[in-house]
Amino acid sequence: MNLLDIRNLSIALDTPTGRVLAVDRVSLSIKEGEFRGLVGESGSGKSLLAQAIIGVLQDKWHVDADRFHWRGIDLLRLTIDERRALLCRDIAMIFQEPMSCLDPTTLIGEQLSETIDTSQLSGYFWQRRKQRKEAVIKLLHKVGIKKHSQCINSYPHQLTEAICQRVMIAIALAGRPILLIADEPTAAMESTNQGQIFRLLANLNQLKNMSILLISHDLENLTHWTSTITVMYSGQFVEAGSTEKIFNKPMHPYTRALVDSSTKANLQLPTKSRLMTLPGSIPILQHLPIGCRLGPRCPRAQQKCVSAPKVSNFHGHKVSCHYPLLRDPGKKEAVKHKTGKGIN
Amino acid sequence: MSVLLDVKEISKSFKLKGYWYHKRKFDALSPLSFAIEGKKTLAIVGETGSGKSTLAKILVGAETPSSGKVYLNGQLLESQRFKQRCQHVRMIFQDSGTTLNPSLTIQQLLDEPLTLNTDLDDKQRRQLIRTTLQKVGLLGDHMNFYPHMFSGGQKQRISLARAIILQPQVIILDEALAALDPSLRSQMINLLLDLQQQMGLAYILISHNLGIVRHFSDDVMVMSQGKVVESGKTIEVMRNPQHKVTQRLMMSQNFQLK
Known about the structure:
The structure holds two protein chains of two kinds. Chain A has one domain: P-loop containing nucleotide triphosphate hydrolases (Rossmann fold). Helix content of chain A is 35%, strand content 23%. Chain A contains twelve helices and 13 strands. Chain A has helices spanning 46-54, 80-90, 98-101, 108-115, 125-142, 148-152, 161-174, 191-207, 219-222, 243-248, 253-261, 329-343, and strands at 2-15, 18-31, 35-39, 61-64, 67-70, 73-74, 91-94, 179-183, 211-216, 228-233, 236-242, 311-314, 317-320. Chain A has an eight-stranded mixed sheet, sandwiched between helices. In chain A, strands 1, 2, 4, 5 and 6 form a five-stranded antiparallel sheet that branches. The model of chain A is unreliable at 329-344 (pLDDT under 50). In chain B, the strands form two sheets. Chain B has a six-stranded mixed sheet with strand order 6-7-8-3-9-10, sandwiched between helices. In chain B, helix 5 (122-135) crosses helix 6 (152-164). Helices cover 38% and strands 29% of the residues of chain B. At the A-B interface, helix 8 and helix 11 of A face helix 6, helix 7, helix 8 and helix 10 of B.
């Protein structure tokens, strides 16, 4: 069963010049035990989407969706308080800069013990204190911090960034969530530390069967870890499918360009040769193109692209494009047939 | 091709707090030497605290080395003569958003190095700014804009324009590509490679991303704790990493060259 099922979620912002759709009808579904990557460049609305899922967006953003289900419960019918109560039990989120998210004036140990719910502790009230401390130490061990006593008695600024991120993950794990949303957990981190954090997330996914939604701006860093990937561009859904398909046989011109522009995926290219790129830059929120927002930059754009494309599904590989890149000859005919219909 | 920049036995140490009979110091850089030719790129990789930023600062003249000398075209670069140095060695920083002065227009920003270092008159300077902006893929009319009116990728292009406007010979890229989005990053790489061919620039690239290092550089230098642990042609080092630090770096990025 789908854990999270979102269909056509839109997030809009009222501006003096009219309403702007920052996220335009994006669908996202996460199965149990799935490690999903959400990829998009800056301004693609991926962080907004994550914040909308856990319901921490400010009031000025208007969220609406055709379907917004969490384990079969329709979240849109619940009041905001009910929704929060439900989601904060099941979903946890870790943020970009661990240093700035932790309280700088409080010891790590206190911050951790704050998050442990009393209902998790058994025993009489005089035993609670000890149990709480044990639970904190257990959490720290879970995220791979061995020197727990040193860590508990230090402030965030005394620890390195990777350790801080581990503490953040420990805080997120305290509520025993079913889904963990990681919003660029390794931004501004070194590659060796990045690897550690990704490995920890992968371990949690495999050993605890926890679903993870990993948000990142870089496709090439994700491919080694995730099982499925959703790509967004400028607030629109682009492509979703298994990591292998997305990386090896991208169907959308944008994903194709992302893979082609990655220096890691093209190791066979001679050094100092030109990389494939899309012309132009990412549109800003005030001046979004109509229809498919990739339109002005897309090498395959045609007249039809001024209207937003529908999502088409090829064996679980979803693409939102009028002219997807297809290689199989059998499928090509199907597309010809389809486009033929469009012209008529 | 003759050697453009020749660095000989450069080292840097910082004094730490201590007593006069118990002087303590911290060696940020152990003596190291290298040389770059024109139209070549040297990549410096390493973890934080490995001294790569200190090295960049010494080369650009922001720090004075404790010992050692830097030669440019066979000429000694003295630590006090900034005029000579900043004409030929320029630097681009990681975060272009914070290195551009927000209260100046692009024209004023680019005008500063010209008034300080050249004898051009008003009209010539204006013309030079216009052509430089066009060279980095912006419009000449962009010079009346303020930095906040540009997107991140465009700001990085302006930093590049500021670096190349004095016709330098060496440009130091200190993580200049890290903060950019992937599609803009590849545009920037293409632009840098084109400029290298046109102007005969030598680059010193400081980067974490081994994919970019592989694509962009001719030689690589791996640093750890102020020492050079491995150096050589990029392809050869990456095909057959010898030192533990190099191997760990490549492991952590799941990077393997066949």
